[in-house]
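HUMAN: Mind sharing a backbone?

ASSISTANT:
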Amino acid sequence: MGERAGPGDGAVANRAWWDERVPIHLASDYYDLDEFLAEPDVLRAFETAEVGDVNGARLLHLQCHIGLDTLSWAHRGATVTGLDFSGPAVDAAEALAAELALPARFVTADVYDAADVLAGETFDIVYTGIGALNWLPDVERWAGVVARLLAPGGFLYLAEIHPVQDVLDDESGSTFDLDYFDIGPIIWEEEGSYADPDAETDANVTVEYHHTLGSVVSAVAGAGLCLEFLHEHDCVPTQRFDTLVRGDDNLYRFPAGTPRVPLLYSLRASKP
């Protein structure tokens, strides 16, 4: 576990971390660009089922990183815009879109500035993928931005790491190590990346933020969006705990017959 951070914003340190890791991620087996270029669809089955048909829909992906999820939605027929605060990540996403000949627009901006940068443009779907909200200090402000970006009748779809993961021990994921209601922000200092733990890196400090499930749902409702569903899932894309077992769908779960906790959650909320 990292150290508890002070009240300062970690955006500068976090942006440096992500900027440096773009070439590492492009070269990694984790992202496996050769496979992606052959078949550009990395979305999880529950995501595509819960979002539904996107053909012709205007979709905005917030915090899109190198754009694999964004381009997967484009491959499925959506008219996509990806937004990320890392310039190198946006450059990489644009290069991948060109190589795949997929129509996609990518914008470099902080997520909190998205509505202003996009100058009042609205979308049918605002999508936020796994591992995004932990980089944002203010989830209520985020939800307000999402509401501004949605067209009437449009919806937010969020798939995210379940916050209960933050309080469990790293080895088994079966015991509570921290207070769910009193975590962070947390400063981490680690070399490498989740995509390549052995990579040599210089920008190694990040600040992450814990948002309870209740705080996220309340922020979405407080922004005037109508919750359609909240689902909890027993799977996760990475081996977060040593005991997790990889399945045929490339997602990790607790071994069969053992007690489980939710590892991901998803929600959909519409704008009246």
